[in-house]
Design goal:
- The chain is α/β, with parallel strands linked by helices.
- 36% of the residues lie in helices and 15% in strands.
- The protein has a single domain, classed as 3-Layer(aba) Sandwich (Rossmann fold).
- The longest helix is centred in the middle third of the chain and has 17 residues.
Length: 238
């Protein structure tokens, strides 16, 4: 399960990994808390049309990655921290208990890049994961459940590492996933976010270092069982 704030968060951080595990039969669930209505339009639509357009862009990207289970929340871009905690908690607990994911990916407490919505969804996800494990919360939503691991983005940005950097020795790189076989899927998923693509293009396509993220994706353990060997090459490694 990927719990993000905006359409394109999932493709930015984990498209290759999502494609890899979906291709192996894993069921992937995407939760998107906003429709990114304060993002760029790239002159492809009006600002009023942008929420509907970005929702469709996420659905198109997930089709490329073989993901069908997508949930949108009705909260406002750049104001996610103002969403009612009780409503967000209840909605997330219900999805977590119904989907029962082994792994949950969300942002770290700092939002990875200090974006206010990333920080907010990290806080909401942490709260909901704790509640989902407690049978006293929303018993009507299903049996309590807790995943094996919660994953965060790594503390380093892959495309800002110097050429030849050894990612294996970087603290916080707990999983290093080989996504070379799914570079085309990641490419098409990023391109599906058409309104945001001018910015994504600069990061991933125009910058030679950006190409590194088509070959490898890294994750940090937020909490849960640590694999015997770090960094592991499989998110399910024991």
């Amino acid at each position: 399960m990927f719990i993000g704030a905006h359409p394109d968060d999932e493709s930015f951080f984990a498209a290759g990994t999502i494609a890899r595990y979906a291709s192996e039969g894993a069921r992937v669930t995407i939760v998107c808390a906003t429709r990114g209505e304060r993002g760029a339009t790239a002159d492809l639509c009006s600002i009023e049309e942008l929420p509907k357009v970005r929702e469709q862009e996420l659905r198109d990207a997930m089709r490329v990655l073989w993901v069908k289970d997508i949930h949108f929340f009705p909260y406002e871009d750049q104001k996610l921290q103002q969403a009612p905690i009780e409503d967000v908690r209840r909605a997330l607990v219900e999805i977590i208990r119904q989907s029962r994911p082994d792994l949950v990916f969300t942002f770290d407490p700092h939002g990875s890049n200090q974006h206010v919505d990333h920080i907010a969804i990290a806080r909401f996800a942490s709260d909901a994961l704790s509640a989902a494990a407690d049978p006293r919360w929303y018993p009507e939503s299903g049996a309590p459940f807790i995943p094996t691991r919660v994953l965060w983005p790594p503390p380093i940005i892959l495309f800002r590492q110097p050429p030849g950097a050894d990612l294996h020795v970087q603290p916080g790189v707990d999983f290093l996933i080989d996504t070379r076989a799914f570079a085309e899927q990641k490419t098409q998923a990023l391109k599906a976010h058409r309104t945001q693509f001018p910015g994504l293009k600069k990061l991933f396509f125009d910058d030679p270092n950006g190409r590194r993220t088509f070959n490898w994706e890294a994750f940090r353990i937020g909490w849960g069982a640590r694999p015997k060997n770090i960094p592991a090459d499989d998110l399910f490694a024991e």
